[in-house]
């Protein structure tokens, strides 16, 4: 049987994640890994979860093992209304929807918003998991440049004008404003306001993906991170956030805040996708927040990742040769490196992990326009400060040698 002939047009454009492809090599014993994008498991609150689990099995009995409503637990959505209000986002329970991770939110939004040939504007670079959702709908992704202040409004405006002049239909711009995966870049406040204006001018939506916003470091004030959705004119923004990076990604619990008409449509898509998000996962996270444990935990993990980020930036300052540039994130989990033109980070990633047992992810797959071959992503989430120093020192020597041969 020719199975390939059976696959849908959508199936034929699906691509394996380059990160997953590296997983086998990265997980070998002794490898210092700056690859992957997972939170550090030592931050997961296993003891609190055990206590909560005991309590809810005792009080709720079998109910927590039952199906739930598609939109998610009512009392949890009420709690999220308050949590969003603390970020400046005004919402009502009817506008909120719990999803099985933000990844599902992105997939459902793609399904309800995109037809083949529609255009999605994305940052250069952008999150691979979202690009996969957009690609699978046969939409076209068009990249917009960013600098250290985030997406460049003039580039966004010029790209939108050009596409509209060509008769293309732009459905939305997908933005990760805080400590972006993969670049670690944050969109400056004045640009957030400008982006809203441009979207209104050209009649497209903004999908604001914010799984890292709570993970800000010492030097950052939360006001600086005010969501695009919280700004005047931001009511139409579709905002996603998740408990994956800040509590646990194994409990697949995230949420969307959107105009009610969008939430209703996403609900229909979710009914077909999985009926509902795990009742148990939702209950655990809900109780974790309700008991005030989430707020305390956030303080702890901000310090935890801040220390690791400082260790990585210090090591980069000490060890990287001239010609290498990198971002200085104020939160999140990632630093982004740009090597001199002519170096191929994919080949270097293979060589570094095989010969020196240091792993990172090459940058090209995060770009939709075929650029970025000389870029790479480092996460500081996994390794200790000592291992970060050791790994960066090895990479510094490695890149120095490669640059000397250019
Ligand atoms: C920018 C971004 N959005 C969404 C996700 C998906 O997260 P989850 O589905 O675990 O909520 C990730 C995970 O790496 C991410 O980096």
Short overview:
44% of the residues lie in helices and 14% in strands. It has helices at residues 3-6, 9-13, 18-26, 46-60, 74-86, 101-113, 128-136, 153-165, 189-202, 260-273, 279-290, 293-319, 345-356, 385-404; strands spanning 32-33, 96-99, 119-124, 140-147, 150-151, 170-175, 205-209, 238-242, 254-257, 325-326, 334-338, 358-359, 361-362, 375-379. The protein is globular.
Describe the structure in your own words.
It is a single chain. With 406 residues, this protein is α/β, with parallel strands linked by helices. It is 44% helix and 14% strand. The strands form 3 sheets. The chain has an 8-stranded mixed beta sheet with strand order 2-9-8-7-6-3-4-5, sandwiched between helices. Helix 6 (101-113) runs parallel beside helix 7 (128-136) and helix 8 packs parallel to helix 9. The chain binds pyridoxal-5'-phosphate.
List keywords for this structure.
single chain; 406 residues; alpha/beta; eight-stranded mixed β-sheet; four-stranded antiparallel β-sheet; binds pyridoxal-5'-phosphate
Q: Biggest β-sheet: count, sense, barrel? A: 8 strands, mixed
Total DSSP helices: 14
The count of strands amounts to 14
N- to C-terminal distance: 49 Å
- Shape assignment: globular
Could you give the topology of this structure?
Layout: H1 3-6, H2 9-13, H3 18-26, E1 32-33, H4 46-60, H5 74-86, E2 96-99, H6 101-113, E3 119-124, H7 128-136, E4 140-147, E5 150-151, H8 153-165, E6 170-175, H9 189-202, E7 205-209, E8 238-242, E9 254-257, H10 260-273, H11 279-290, H12 293-319, E10 325-326, E11 334-338, H13 345-356, E12 358-359, E13 361-362, E14 375-379, H14 385-404
Parallel strand pairs: 1-12, 3-4, 3-6, 6-7, 7-8
Antiparallel strand pairs: 2-9, 4-5, 8-9, 10-11, 11-14, 13-14
Helix pairs in contact: 4-11, 6-7, 6-10, 8-9, 12-14
């Amino acid at each position: 049987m020719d199975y390939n002939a059976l696959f849908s047009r959508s199936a034929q454009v699906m691509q394996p994640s380059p990160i997953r492809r590296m997983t086998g090599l990265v997980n070998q014993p002794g490898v210092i890994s700056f690859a992957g994008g997972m939170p550090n498991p030592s931050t997961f609150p296993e003891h609190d979860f055990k206590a909560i689990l005991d309590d809810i099995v005792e009080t709720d009995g079998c109910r927590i093992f039952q199906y739930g409503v598609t939109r998610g637990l009512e009392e949890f959505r009420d709690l999220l209304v308050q949590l969003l209000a603390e970020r400046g986002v005004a919402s009502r329970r009817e506008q909120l929807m719990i999803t099985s991770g933000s990844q599902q939110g992105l997939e459902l939004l793609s399904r309800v918003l995109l037809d083949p040939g529609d255009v999605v504007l994305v940052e250069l670079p952008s999150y691979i998991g979202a690009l996969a959702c957009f690609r699978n709908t046969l939409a076209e992704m068009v990249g917009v440049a960013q600098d250290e202040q985030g997406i460049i409004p003039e580039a966004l405006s010029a790209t939108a004008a050009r596409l509209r002049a060509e008769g293309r239909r732009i459905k939305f711009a997908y933005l990760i404003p805080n400590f972006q995966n993969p670049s670690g870049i944050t969109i400056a406040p004045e640009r957030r306001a400008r982006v809203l204006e441009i979207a209104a001018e050209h009649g497209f939506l903004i999908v604001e993906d914010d799984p890292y916003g709570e993970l800000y470091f010492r030097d950052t004030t939360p006001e600086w991170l005010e969501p695009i959705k919280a700004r005047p004119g931001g009511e139409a923004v579709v905002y996603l956030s998740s408990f994956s990076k800040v509590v646990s990604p194994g409990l697949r619990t995230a949420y969307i805040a959107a105009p009610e008409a969008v939430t209703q449509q996403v609900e229909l898509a979710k009914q077909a996708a999985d009926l509902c998000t795990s009742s148990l996962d939702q209950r655990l996270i809900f109780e974790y927040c309700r008991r005030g444990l989430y707020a305390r935990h956030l303080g702890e993990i901000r310090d935890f990742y801040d220390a690791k980020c400082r260790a990585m930036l210090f090591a980069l300052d000490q060890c990287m040769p001239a010609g290498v540039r990198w971002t200085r994130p104020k939160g999140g989990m990632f630093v982004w490196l740009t090597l001199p033109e002519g170096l191929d980070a994919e080949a270097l990633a293979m060589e570094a992990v095989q010969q020196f047992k240091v792993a990172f992810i090459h940058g090209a797959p995060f770009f939709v326009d075929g650029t970025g071959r000389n870029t790479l992503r480092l996460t500081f989430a996994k390794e200790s400060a000592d291992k970060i120093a050791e790994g960066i020192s090895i990479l510094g020597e490695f890149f120095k040698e490669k640059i000397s041969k250019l």
